[in-house]
Amino acid sequence: MQDQASRITYGAMMVALFAILLAMTLYVPLLGLLTLLLVPLPITIYRLRYDRISTLMVAMCTWLITLLIGGLLSIPAAVVLSAVGFVIGDTVRTGKTKLYVYMATGVTLLISLSLLYLGTVWFMKINPIEQLMQQFSAIQQEALVILTGMGNSTRDIERTVAEAFTYYQTIVPSLFILSVFVTAYLFVMPILAVATRLRFEVPKFASFLTMRLPFATVLAYLALLLISILSQPEQGTTFYLMEANAILIFRFLFFLQGLALIYYALRKMKLPMIVNVLATLFAMFLSPFTVMLGVLDIAINIRTWIDKDKRA
């Protein structure tokens, strides 16, 4: 009986905390960007203490309180955020690794947002992708007008601008996937940090400096580039869509690998943290070079050379 009473009391506290964080997210412009990342926290904390069924009941209570705070249109967001909190809490409670927690959160967020998109199209007759494509077309026409006014060849400009905007429209799926997993990381890190402060046992990531992708990723990337060069797929085809998105995702992974290598070298040189910040800016500005560093680090293990130089 006492356990049941404590479940209800603690659940009411978590629902109240969820309501406060959600209200701050909706109605406090700048602070809301930070509190958004903590909205799933009450569900995570509750799941770390109690079973799945009780946690789901608390999550449904948060949907009801969301109806009062933000109206009917806010409920889908509350469902997504509570699902994220549940998955983080459940994977930590069952002893999964931090990478597993992160990947599960990313997949949950991806599926939830995809279902939210389908619901928006079916029930509200609003297609965000079509609206984005229309904005692309409007920007393309504005770019043509500006460049034509500078006295350049109209035919060359139209072809160049059309190819550029077709490429950007093509990579929308991979940009969406990458942004979802970046967002998942931004959810996982502060929530687990708070859980650690509350004395819950949470897993830890290995240091970013030790990041090392499998050698197979280099082989797959090179094979993809070779196929792309030999086949020369036409823009707008399904194969071009798949190839462009796959290459973008690979380059993002190799960019992270190259950035980890840069941080590793700076750590060995014992330089101040401000150098890491400047190096990150340069790495983003010179992203093709950073990607190449990442590929070389996987292929020939540049870190062993850095370690040999330090020992010498």
UniProtKB/TrEMBL annotation:
InterPro entries, per database record: DUF2232 (IPR018710)
Domain of life: Bacteria
Keywords: Membrane, Transmembrane, Transmembrane helix
TM annotation in the entry: 12-43, 63-88, 100-124, 171-192, 213-232, 244-266, 278-302
UniProt keyword Plastid, yes or no: no
PANTHER family: DUF2232 DOMAIN-CONTAINING PROTEIN, MEMBRANE PROTEIN-RELATED
Protein name as annotated: DUF2232 domain-containing protein
